[in-house]
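Our preliminary data section would be incomplete without showing what the modeling component actually yields. Below, a chain of 305 amino acids is followed by its predicted structure, encoded as tokens that our downstream tools consume directly.
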Amino acid sequence: MISVTFVQLLELSRLFFAPPNQNVTIRVMSWLVIPKLLIVIVFLFIFLRRPTLTWGIGLLCVTTAVLLDTFLGTFNTLELLGEIGFFFYIIVGILVGGMAVWAWGILKPVRQTTTAAESLAPIATLANTPVLISDQPTPETAVPPHSDTTYDRQMLYEEIQSRFGSEDIFDLTFDLGINENDVVPLNNDPKQLIVNIISLAENNSQTGDLALAVERILTPVPAATLPRLENISVNSPPTILRHYLIANYDMDELQTMAATLKIDWEELGTGGKKTKVRNLLLYLCRRNRLDELINLMKEPLSEEE
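Predicted structure:
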């Protein structure tokens, strides 16, 4: 960077203080040095404020381009091109490729924001009242669960981003039956994670289910509104079990149940009760052992009878 600035200043001084009989065109072209310096300074300033790989590539490409242009303008262009030969086109190709990478990195967040902002239709107003969870079939007169045209992508995104914690987001993926590995980005960016969840739910025609799941997490379901334990079976949605365990069991009871099922408590990860419950259910679902948990939960009822 210092070398580029030094060369440009030398060129400015040489051209500005040139004898009057020198070509006037050279004096006019000298003014092009100022925009080139400003471009380099702008890229340097942004890189110092946001030291990312994208802006580092952009700064390197711009600096190299200015340096190459300075050499071509200072020395005999044809002679210099003859010396460089084929490598000149390689350098130009690298610069073009680098600027393409820079442009792609700059436009990527814009594309993500645009995707999150695409609206399906005005969002339906969800009442802030507890939602009754039932494992009974949906009546034919009710709105189909895949009727996604009444929900707005952007408003769902903003609501999740502003009101959800990291554990709430993973509870959301569990309630929707989404595999975490399918939506978690490589850089663990929470904003991209939300966009991936919404996009996958849209592809699976689950936008309506997504809005309902968001409301259920924001408004915890009272234990009195949950289905009775004797009505819960393996065919019940796993989210019912999750809400039931959270509402009716403490950490010690959950640990005892895990020990009875011969599950290592530490294997369920660290975190609070919501994390433990979610990981316990995921562990059992993947091994088709959910019926063992339900039978264990119903044992006190059998003893009372």
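The mean pLDDT is 73. Residues 151-219 form one domain. Preliminary results of this kind motivate Aim 1 of the renewal.
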